[in-house]
Write a structure and sequence with these properties.
It contains no helices and ten strands. It is mostly beta strands. The strands form two sheets. It has a six-stranded mixed beta sheet, with no helix packed on it. Strands 1-3-8-7 form a four-stranded antiparallel beta sheet, with no helix packed on it. It is globular and about 40 Å long. The termini are far apart.
Length: 115
């Protein structure tokens, strides 16, 4: 079973940046498109970005375009999410998963944006 471990979250002020990491173990991520998702209490998990296997294709939710950048390093079996100009509405637990998602999720990493 592939294990996905998210990290890099934190508490930041509006306008600051974070880089989230999604490290996989147990199998290679090379064969999968990978997505980043986020969830706030009481709301459904939503996809915010995804990247194809060959890194040349990326998709972003409209509200994060221009601020989020997804990338992958297959040699490190890791996918990243660079988040710039963070806004309070970006506050959420962020998760990564393959596309389509496995039927399980990692623990996520909390991002809190507050002045």
């Amino acid at each position: 079973q592939v294990q996905l471990v998210e990290s890099g979250g934190g508490s930041v002020k509006p306008g600051e940046s974070l880089t989230l990491s999604c490290a996989a173990s147990g199998a290679s991520l090379d064969d999968y498109a990978i997505g980043w998702f986020r969830q706030t209490p009481g709301k459904a998990r939503e996809g915010v970005a995804c990247i194809g296997r060959n890194r040349s294709i990326a998709y972003y939710k409209d509200s994060v375009k221009g601020r989020f950048t997804i990338s992958r390093d297959n040699a490190k079996n890791t996918v990243y999410l660079q988040i710039n100009n963070l806004k309070p509405e970006d506050t959420a637990v962020y998760y990564c998963n393959r596309l389509p998602p496995f039927n399980y999720w990692g623990q996520g990493t909390q991002v809190t944006v507050s002045s």
